[in-house]
Design a protein that fits this description.
The two termini are 21 Å apart. This protein has four helices and no strands. 50% of the residues lie in helices and 0% in strands. It is mainly α. The relative contact order is 0.21.
């Protein structure tokens, strides 16, 4: 979909490089995950209604849905909460606002980081809903969450550029 020609395109933001992290593996992985979490919240934070929930691609993907989905993914992998319908996690309800969805995402990140920080060894299992079988290691979970969040941050970059021309972090 083309950029709304009635809106002034935002200036190009300067892209930020990779984060400086601690020296150990867990600090490095968490640093990259936090960097990506911030990138996706920044892409959605100041988008007005209805653009924040308007699908910008044929699949129906929208910024509010991406943040909402990542909230459920964090809950699943770090807090052991089950999800019945992954597709539904991408569809915001009429009651969802950007403020409420971002606040929920930020709260889950705080709780997830507490779980990560409390893990003494990355070979230990991450939380997992009981019916899902053996839990993956915390190392696998962190790497997967970096991949998952990066993938959706890329989607958010494209959607945001389609909305108002905004690029960069």
């Amino acid at each position: 979909m083309p950029i709304d020609s009635t809106q002034q395109p935002r200036s190009r933001a300067r892209d930020t490089g990779p984060p400086r992290t601690g020296a150990d593996e867990k600090a490095t992985l968490r640093g990259f995950l936090d960097h990506l979490r911030e990138a996706i919240t920044n892409k959605a934070a100041d988008v007005p209604e209805p653009q924040v929930r308007t699908p910008e691609v044929p699949s129906g993907t929208n910024l509010l849905g991406l943040v909402r989905h990542l909230t459920f993914v964090e809950r699943f992998y770090f807090l052991g909460e089950d999800v019945d319908d992954w597709g539904r996690t991408m569809r915001p309800s009429p009651e969802d606002t950007i403020e409420s969805v971002l606040a929920g995402y930020r709260q889950v990140i705080v709780r997830a980081n507490q779980v990560i920080d409390a893990c003494p060894d990355l070979t230990h299992p991450a939380p997992r809903p009981p019916r899902r079988g053996p839990a993956p290691t915390m190392r696998w979970t962190l790497v997967h969450m970096i991949e998952e969040t990066a993938r959706h941050a890329g989607h958010a970059d494209i959607i945001r550029e389609q909305i108002d021309g905004s690029t960069g972090r």
